[in-house]
Write a structure and sequence with these properties.
The protein has helices spanning 3-23, 27-54, 62-83, 90-101, 121-155, 161-165, 169-201, 210-231, 236-259. It is mainly alpha-helical. The longest helix has 35 residues, at 121-155.
């Protein structure tokens, strides 16, 4: 069986188990889901390392980019899980990982690229930092969705099985803050490396395109969001809404380079 199918299947099974755990009063489900998710992460890590050893490009086209991004999502989730008790977030986290790995099974024609500059260590470092930062934003996005849902349930006094499974509002807000701050710091470094790499490789011939423009706009959006959170006390629902909107714009930024020519 193709290893890509195995990776995608493991993330799919993991997400299904985590989603079922939200409705079933049995903590064993989340434990089993976590083990399967970790197995998928290990298999995907093995595959990515094998690509590096063979000298294959980790990037090139939408399928490969999403596949690499999908590796960082469970990686950051496992880090967050170490600091906070939030297994329920795995329902969305591993669903995102599955969605990210699925396109690699059947790469769409017309978006496959073979750019030798992608092998440049500076470019690879830039992309890794960007995807790592985006993975933190993905966790903030999921925490934001759960925060808004749980707050609505509490206000309406309709606490069901799902609400009981979720972390407290305070914990979700802390995860949101930790993820936003970590993601913004890492992406800032990634953008700096990217500008340096672009100047080093293309020099004066490098021009601003859709990807570069939207990346800077997304960075500014998160800078404003963090500024309001740190200086104006934006917490709770406002911060959660900002994390959701910001991540949606980030996804648009990720896709635009493959859909709209620069």
């Amino acid at each position: 069986m193709n290893i890509l199918i195995i990776i995608s299947a493991l993330y799919f099974i993991c997400s299904v188990i985590y989603i079922a755990n939200l409705w079933i009063q049995n903590n064993n489900y989340s434990r089993v889901g976590l083990y399967i998710g970790i197995l998928g992460f290990i298999v995907q890590s093995y595959y990515l390392v094998s690509l590096l050893v063979r000298g294959d490009l980790l990037l090139g086209g939408l399928g490969k980019s999403l596949f690499l991004f999908a590796w960082f999502i469970p990686f950051v989730f496992l880090i967050s899980l170490y600091f906070y008790r939030l297994p329920s977030l795995g329902a969305f986290i591993f669903s995102l990982a599955f969605i990210g790995t699925a396109p690699a099974l059947i790469p769409p024609s017309g978006i496959i690229v073979s750019d030798p500059t992608l092998n440049n260590p500076l470019i690879l470092t830039h992309v890794i930092l960007i995807f790592l930062g985006l993975a933190f934003f993905a966790v903030a996005f999921v925490a934001g969705i759960f925060y808004i849902f749980e707050e609505k349930e509490i206000k309406e006094k309709k606490l069901g099985k799902l609400s009981i499974k979720l972390p407290s509002l305070n914990t979700l807000d802390k995860v949101n803050h930790f993820s936003l701050l970590s993601g913004f710091s890492i992406i800032t470094l990634g953008l700096a490396v990217g500008f340096f790499a672009a100047n080093h490789i293309w020099g004066n011939n490098w021009q601003w395109g859709n990807k570069e423009t939207w990346s800077i706009l997304s960075w500014l959006l998160y800078a404003i969001l963090l500024n309001f959170r740190l200086s104006s006390g934006w917490k709770g629902r406002k911060a959660a809404t900002g994390a959701i909107i910001g991540f949606c714009i980030i996804l648009f930024t990720l896709l635009i380079q493959y859909v709209i020519p620069s």
